């Protein structure tokens, strides 16, 4: 079960009063997360008003040495209200993940290069990222990607039908109350 | 799923190969909590891998002064390659010969398949099992149960103080 409720500090897509909340714990360097990314976006589009999507960081830095740096770039973009743009850019260009990609994405989004460099050097967003990670561990995240649907861990696969089915089941449950 | 040794049981001592030329004994770790993580095999898929996750959570275990030991029936050379590949910062023990003997002593051995269960034990600093859990073999049990148990462990300093004042 999810132990860390969604707060305004989270990265949230979709209406705050949506009946279903989908949370993903993900890592920008994880190939499975990369493969799940277009599926998640399709899910978000399909359920639109009925779904609130939240992304939290779960970088496995010992096997994915660049994951945490990428997460910092996403947080930096988030501080400039462009989290999702950076998030999409990172996953869509996962095969070329590296410092040059971070700066290229930042430039394309019109984000200040100096600011990004400073944030990375100072580790400004590391506490938040580590906080996401630990909250995930305490909630039973054991790899990436891990999804929660209305606070319950989704133990099915992240294939489109599986995720959509889990969300629909929650929608029907909510409707019948 | 077997019935692994429950809380309150003294943890059976063992000496296992930790590298091709070194051995480690459980009794040498007395004085601090120990986490034993039995698992079926090295080289399961990367991102959902249990040992990889524990490697990431290691700083949290260490905050409780806990030592983590991974145990499977893989040989020491296999463990060495796995440790290097995944950059693991904790020891993997080879319950290789006689095969699965330690896992059997914790009732965490799958006789049919010849591998360890996915079984977790948190031992207190006196070497008594404080918490144990056996996960379905295909399910990564995660780290939350271990962290919960470590948090519930009585503060060792208090225990020591209490036992010494009791003796006095």
Describe the overall structure.
The complex is a heterodimer of chains A (177) and B (168). Helix content of chain A is 50%, strand content 14%. Chain A has helices spanning 31-47, 67-79, 83-92, 99-108, 113-122, 126-138, 160-175, and strands spanning 11-13, 20-26, 51-57, 146-149, 152-154. In chain A, 42% of the residues are buried. Chain A has a 5-stranded mixed sheet. Chain A starts with 10 loop residues before the first strand and ends with a helix. Chain A has one domain: Glutaredoxin (3-Layer(aba) Sandwich), CATH 3.40.30. By secondary structure, chain A is of the alpha+beta class. Chain A is built from 7 helices and 5 strands, in the order ββαβαααααββα. Chain B is α/β, with parallel strands linked by helices and 168 residues long. Chain B has a single domain, classed as 3-Layer(aba) Sandwich (Glutaredoxin), CATH 3.40.30.10. Helix content of chain B is 30%, strand content 24%. Chain B is built from 5 helices and 9 strands. In chain B, strands 5-4-3-8-9 form a 5-stranded mixed sheet. A two-stranded antiparallel ribbon of chain B has the order 1-2. A two-stranded antiparallel sheet of chain B has the order 6-7. The N and C termini of chain B lie far apart (46 Å). Mean pLDDT of chain B is 90; it is low at 157-168.
What are its keywords?
A: 177 residues; alpha+beta; Glutaredoxin; 14% strand; B: alpha/beta; five-stranded mixed beta sheet; two-stranded antiparallel sheet; 9 strands; disordered C terminus
Query: Which regions of chain B contain 5 or more consecutive residues with pLDDT less than 50?
Result: 157-168
Q: Would you identify the CATH H-level superfamily of chain B?
A: Glutaredoxin
Radius of gyration of chain B: 16 Å
Domains of chain B, number:
1
Please report the total strand number of chain A as a whole number: 5
Distance between the termini of chain B: 46 Å
Compute the average pLDDT of chain B: 90
| Strand order in the largest sheet of chain A | 1-3-2-4-5
Structural domain count of chain A:
1
Summarize the helix and strand pattern of chain A as letters: EEHEHHHHHEEH
For this structure, the CATH topology of chain A is Glutaredoxin
Corresponding CATH architecture of chain A = 3-Layer(aba) Sandwich
């Amino acid at each position: 079960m999810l132990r860390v409720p969604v707060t305004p500090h989270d990265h949230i897509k979709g209406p705050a009063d949506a009946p279903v909340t989908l949370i993903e714990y993900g890592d920008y360097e994880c190939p499975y997360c990369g493969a799940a990314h277009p599926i998640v976006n399709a899910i978000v589009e399909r359920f639109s008003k009925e779904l609130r999507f939240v992304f939290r960081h779960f970088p496995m830095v010992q096997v994915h040495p660049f994951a945490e740096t990428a997460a910092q770039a996403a947080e930096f973009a988030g501080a400039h209200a462009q989290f999702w743009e950076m998030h999409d850019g990172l996953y869509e260009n996962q095969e070329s993940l590296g410092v040059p990609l971070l700066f290229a994405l930042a430039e394309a989004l019109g984000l200040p290069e100096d600011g990004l460099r400073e944030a990375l050097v100072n580790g400004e967003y590391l506490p938040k990222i580590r906080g996401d990670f630990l909250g995930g561990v305490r909630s039973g995240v054991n790899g990436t990607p891990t999804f929660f649907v209305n606070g319950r861990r989704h133990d099915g696969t992240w294939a489109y039908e599986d995720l959509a089915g889990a969300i629909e089941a929650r929608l029907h449950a909510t409707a019948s109350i | 799923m077997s019935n692994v040794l429950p809380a309150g049981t003294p943890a059976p001592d063992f000496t296992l190969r930790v590298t091709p030329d070194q051995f480690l004994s459980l009794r040498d770790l007395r004085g601090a909590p120990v986490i034993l993580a039995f698992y079926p095999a090295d080289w399961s898929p990367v991102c959902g891998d249990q040992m990889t996750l524990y490697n990431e959570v290691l700083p949290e275990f260490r905050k409780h002064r806990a030592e983590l030991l991974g145990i499977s029936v893989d040989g020491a050379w296999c463990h060495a390659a796995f440790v290097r590949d995944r950059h693991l910062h904790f020891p993997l023990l080879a319950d290789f010969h006689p095969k699965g003997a330690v896992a059997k002593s914790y009732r965490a051995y799958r006789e049919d398949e010849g591998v360890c269960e996915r079984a977790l034990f948190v031992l207190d600093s006196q070497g008594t099992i404080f918490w144990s859990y056996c996960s379905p073999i295909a399910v990564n049990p995660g780290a939350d149960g271990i962290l919960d148990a470590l948090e519930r462990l009585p503060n060792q300093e208090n225990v020591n103080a209490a036992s010494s004042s009791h003796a006095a």
